[in-house]
Amino acid sequence: MCGIVGYVGPRPSQDILLAGLARLEYRGYDSAGIAVIDEAGSLDMRKKAGKLAVLRDSLTDAAMPDGSTGIGHTRWATHGGPTDVNAHPHLADDDKLAVIHNGIIENFAALRDELTAEGVTFLSETDTEVAAALLGREYRASEDLQTAFRNVVNRLEGAFTLLAMHEDHPGLVVGARRNSPLVIGLGEGENFLGSDVAAFVEHTRSALAIGQDQIVAITPAQVTVTDFDGNPVEAQPFEVSWDAAAAEKGGWSSFMAKEVAEQPEAVANTIRGRVQGDQVVIPELDGLDDLFTGIRRVIITACGTASYAALVGKYAIEQWARVPVDVELAHEFRYRDPVIGDDTLVVSISQSGETMDTLMAVKYARERGARTLSVCNTQGATIPRESDAVVYTHAGPEVAVASTKAFSAQITALLLLGLHMGRVRGSLDASAADVVAELQELPEKVAQVLADETEHVSQLAGWMADTRSVLFLGRHVGYPIALEGALKLKEISYIHAEGFAAGELKHGPIALIEPGQPVFVIVPSPRHSALIHSKVVSNIQEIRARGARVIVVAEEGDAAVLPYADEVIRIPLASPLLEPLLAVVPLQIFAMALATAKGLDVDQPRNLAKSVTVE
């Protein structure tokens, strides 16, 4: 979750650290701090509970000496509450050493007891201060920061990214990663570290990805990467495909509003280069036909919003590739001893590529011989590197905590994957060419929904700002969209919302219906399945008869819903498996508009983090 920035170079580090942390605010945090080694060679530190603005204000009120070596951190509380004392950095070795940390050190209690027995006094409740104290002890013994750092990380258990610097070594920052993200930014006469590339993309788009259990040391002139035993390793270079402007609001009221509006571009970019004539051919999967022809089963594993994209992917892959698909929540997958083997393809979905539950599921699958493929939006991330293959989405940076354009790009990638697999497995029929042609029209149709319904849905949300509960119903691929609509509303408006399979209504949830209860219903096209459509209309009649306020999302020209709907939101005509990309847009707008009407921060909802890097 936490944001991490490190810098060495000729420029004043405070500005670079604060700007980098600002671009990492999307990750979710409750305190912030920086440490620098000033021009006199002394280490100075400032940290504050609350948002980054609180730290900035404290630096304005009482300036801290600047220097060209520094580390910065935004913390999401785990061990100890969000207080000034628990914030990072943590100091050791008579305040000459500073450490920041993302993740959880699972054996911190034993290490703390060991250090306490030696007379070490701790100021905070954090596991991070234990690592700092341990590093201080090791440094006093070796007087070499890199040797001491290597000794410490080999004693730590759990998930961590650690950065450290010592005033005896200005111009040097060391970092390590285990099950937690860390990337290197390469500059001219300067170098950077960050929990993702947003930390330094303003200054360089040239980056290195380091692997599991590796240590990096940066100076202005050099980057050195080793394993935890000190053996040199080669980091993987990559170019960041977007620039800093892509992660700015650009005049929008919120990042979420900007990202909702960017969905046509996100969908188009994810499709681009993957259609050849009337077929889908994903270049990243070239030469991997055996990955798909040899499998008898697919498991898609993900968390939260990504798991709802996975449900849509299940329908697509089963229909086009004719292989059974299960969807598993990543945090449940490896704890129930699932039956998998070399005839199983495990597809993981993660926007950040660092979601800890999903990463652990991928590792578990590989250990048991399964083939693995990831769907990811972030270059240099861990999950793609741990997988046999990767299909990147091209949504660009998503800053708002509540996912919108990344979700649409994930569905798009899964549709492409289903068509690619179907082609390789020889299971597509003649209608697939029409679907491929229609797929390329989707960006324009998403743009049409945004143009036609944003004002209508926003006005509807304004009228419902005092609503305490909203239900969402859907069938077929409308069901995962109902789940996603409910999740978006919960995430940013803090009101009760639930999504149901419409057929489940009479098996219990109908007891929730009372006069005035708002219910969104995702109505499937009558052109493709008159039977499913008629059953959903019957569901609408059932809830309307009990006084519910019914808001229907239905395709253009569907007149059958009009007698039973209080409000109708229209989406363009589309094939059944493509409808989710259109139906989800008004639900995103509704959640955003309702939260805005309540005066809430739609970009950084309470208690949530963008990138969940702990289990």
Automatic annotation (TrEMBL):
**GO MF annotation list:** glutamine-fructose-6-phosphate transaminase (isomerizing) activity
Tagged with keyword Transferase: yes
Limits of the SIS domain: 288-427, 460-605
Catalytic residues identified in the record: 2 (nucleophile), 610 (for fru-6p isomerization activity)
**What does the record give as EC number?**
2.6.1.16
Which residues does the UniProt record annotate as the domain Glutamine amidotransferase type-2? 2-229
One Pfam family linked to the record: GATase_6
| Entries under InterPro entries matching the protein | GATase_2_dom, GFAT, GFAT_N, GlmS/AgaS_SIS, GlmS/FrlB_SIS, Ntn_hydrolases_N, SIS_dom, SIS_dom_sf
- The superkingdom listed in its UniProt entry is Bacteria
Task: Give the main localization category.
Answer: cytoplasm
In its UniProt entry, what is this protein called? Glutamine--fructose-6-phosphate aminotransferase [isomerizing]
- Which species expresses this protein natively? Microbacterium bandirmense
Q: What is the lineage of its organism?
A: Bacteria, Bacillati, Actinomycetota, Actinomycetes, Micrococcales
* Gene name of the record: glmS
